[in-house]
């Protein structure tokens, strides 16, 4: 079988990083409310809001835009069920990681656990998203690069979480989001480098029913960024009201 070369639209590659950073920044803004919550309801509300922004925006949306940026010389669609599960996985593990890291008392063991959970979630979402691809190719992986991609996700997730809950200020939060963006993108593109696509013969079952996305990269990025900017605005307003009430 003949190997197929990956070619990238670098505008969409850059856009995927912007989505990852914006999603991370929004999630970390929501995460500020986790240790400040006065009731379990407020705490879990902040956790779920942050986890949704991180998992749905920074991780899943980034992955989808990045996949659309990659051309492998074969038409592809996406299995609806696996794609939906990948979104759910990203949101759940992000929420769990933030819940662990956002405890009232900082512990290195919590940071290690949270970074591991979130990093494994980023990696799991990526490879599940890859499995959702329906195309006339066979995919094989270089397991050394797969392992490296997982390590990148875990280490960078730990760094971003530490910055999020131990530093204050807009610039520090932006730095944390930039690190998390590197974690998500670094993991994704390392994972893509680990994959070899071999020319196949027939289209898989369910190809025609799969979600198509040849020209959706820019549209998805714009919609996601608009939603995240709205969420970020709400978060900033809430923090301002809290600061006024505390005076």
Automatic annotation (TrEMBL):
The keyword Secreted does not apply. The chain crosses the membrane at residues 12-34, 46-74, 80-104, 111-133, 145-165, 177-197, 217-237. Keywords: Membrane, Transmembrane, Transmembrane helix. Residues 8-198 form the MHYT domain. This is MHYT domain-containing protein.
């Amino acid at each position: 079988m003949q190997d197929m070369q990956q070619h990238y639209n670098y505008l969409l590659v850059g856009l995927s990083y912007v989505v990852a950073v914006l999603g991370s920044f929004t999630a970390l803004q929501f995460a500020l409310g986790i240790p400040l919550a006065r009731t379990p309801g407020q705490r879990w509300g902040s956790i779920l809001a942050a986890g949704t922004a991180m998992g749905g925006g920074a991780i899943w949306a980034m992955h989808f835009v990045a996949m659309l940026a990659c051309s492998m010389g074969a038409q592809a669609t996406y299995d609806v069920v696996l794609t939906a599960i990948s979104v759910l996985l990203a949101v759940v593990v992000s929420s769990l990681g933030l819940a662990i890291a956002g405890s009232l008392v900082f512990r290195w063991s919590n940071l290690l656990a949270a970074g591991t959970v979130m990093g494994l979630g980023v990696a799991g979402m990526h490879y599940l998203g890859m499995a959702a691809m329906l195309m006339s190719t066979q995919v094989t992986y270089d397991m050394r690069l797969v392992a490296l991609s997982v390590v990148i996700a875990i280490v960078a997730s730990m760094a971003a979480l530490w910055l999020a809950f131990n530093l204050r200020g807009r610039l520090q939060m932006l730095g944390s989001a930039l690190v998390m963006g590197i974690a998500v993108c670094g993991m994704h593109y390392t994972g893509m480098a680990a994959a070899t696509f071999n020319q196949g013969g027939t289209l898989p079952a369910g190809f025609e029913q799969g979600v198509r996305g040849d020209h959706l990269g820019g549209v998805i990025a714009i919609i996601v960024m608009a939603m995240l900017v709205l969420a970020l605005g709400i978060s900033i307003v809430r923090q301002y009201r809290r600061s006024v009430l505390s005076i």
